[in-house]
Specification:
The protein has 238 residues and is α+β, with helices and mostly antiparallel strands. It is built from six helices and six strands, in the order βαααβαββααββ. Bound molecules: adenosine-5'-triphosphate and magnesium ion (MG).
Amino acid sequence: MGSKRHARGVREPTGRFLEIAEREVGRIILDIHDGPVQNIFAALSQLYVVQKRMAQQPSPPGEELERVRRSIGLLENALNDIRTFMGAFRPPEFERRDLVSILEGLVIQHEELTGNTVSLVLDGELPAVPLPVKISLYRILQEALSNAVRHGSANQHSILLRSEGHSIMMEVADNGRGFDVAAVMQRPLAGHFGLEGMHERVILLGGSLSIESSPGLGTRVCVEIPVAARPAATPLPS
Ligand SMILES: Nc1ncnc2c1ncn2[C@@H]1O[C@H](COP(=O)(O)OP(=O)(O)OP(=O)(O)O)[C@@H](O)[C@H]1O
Ligand SMILES: [Mg+2]
């Protein structure tokens, strides 16, 4: 009672766009890894040497040594930030693994990062899940868990996965403070892309998404995506 529900409609299904987008993300991650990360690491290695040599001098230059130490700290922080970012965005072998194991991996990662508890319940058997649907459900779960912590200060999450007819359903609930969904959806995007991204992903696959929440109560994100057998897509050029 008193909770607000927000739902969006259905558009022409196309999984190909999501598959291409995910490959692009993979390429960007590799470029970051092979470019800036290697350079930061090279700079750090040089600074470690300089720091050691300075410290070994008969009368070490205190101020300069302190500057080098601070620069090392900044670069180490930058490397850690980039590693965390890359970990969050690296696709976990979507093609080879099944949906449940992919989502379980995300759940474990979230529990380790936040100390929260996450229950993942599989209600019955799931049909074969096409790659674009796996990608979308993974990204939506990632965003829902992160929003719950960042905005709702939730410390518990529960995920329910089930299949109904030719659709797969995922519900992600949190025990956070909740929010006014209609008010948030009406305001301009202005730096808030998470919920809009969830909607876009689901709509591209011909599904629907609804969010139930209200201030003071938790939030529940419900996704339904059709997984009925369709003609196989032409493989993408690698
Ligand atoms: N689970 C939640 N609990 C409480 N508030 C939420 C929750 N999910 C979303 N919100 C509210 O909805 C707003 C929009 O969420 P959205 O994910 O679109 O953007 P964001 O998280 O602020 O930014 P981004 O996802 O782009 O980093 C949030 O700023 C927050 O106020
Ligand atoms: Mg968000």
